Amino acid sequence: MKKKGSIRIYLKQMRIKSWMKNLFVFCAIIFSRELFEWNKLIQATVLTLAFCLISSAVYVMNDINDVENDRKHAVKRNRPIAAGQISIPSAWILLICLMAGGLLLALSVNPSSFFLAAIYVVMNILYSKWLKTKVVIDCFCIAAGFVIRVMVGGTIVSSGVSDWMFLTVVSLSLFMAFGKRRGELNIYGPGKTRDVLGIYEINFLNGIIFMCAGLAMAFYSLWSISQEPNLVYTVPIVLFIVIRYLLQVFSGHSEADPTDLILSDKILLIACGICAITVLILLYGTRLP
Hints:
Tetracycline Repressor, domain 2, mainly alpha, 2 domains
């Protein structure tokens, strides 16, 4: 066992790898063509950091609440709090510091960002204490977390978040959330790690996943045409990413956590990189510094 209380243990508890999800904050500034406006780029970076701290605080809160169940879980029992590497009082201090730091950073940008960040915190408290046991609602809460990240990014751009962007993110987030539940159900079986897994059924999740994937592609296609006609050429790349992601979800080899799936699949990771570069070139072209 690693030394109790070491910095590495605290960083592990913060789940740095999952910070990748907070890049959703940049969606609005990228597609509004304001990425290279220095002040807004700094604000977007600060807001992303704010959500990194807040999301880590949420992970700590969830692990404190679920410590007993995690100790019975084959994988989660290795988490620092469940493994006894971080004491509960120390975990609470870490949670408070991360939460306060994240909220203060959001407030330093603008009140709207702080308000949305506070909603994110409240929603996750309700999720941790109650909503995670409510079938379907649990996945909508997960999806809402991604939507809030995008909306926070929209507070610093002149055009805000477009309707098509909102619909695309909602459907894509639900696609990932229900995909994660399918992965958990497939690996652990009904009700063994989450109460809702005793209610979800594989065929139901299969249908919802394909429906959300189809909606995400339809909304993105319409968004790309309305935003910038040339963006339509990214649709095949996004379609490849969605199909490759579906393949990984249905492979049954993992819990289908979005971060783990993308980072563990080199082809999927490369495709995401190609898509990002293509979007930047099509949106900015000669505007790139």
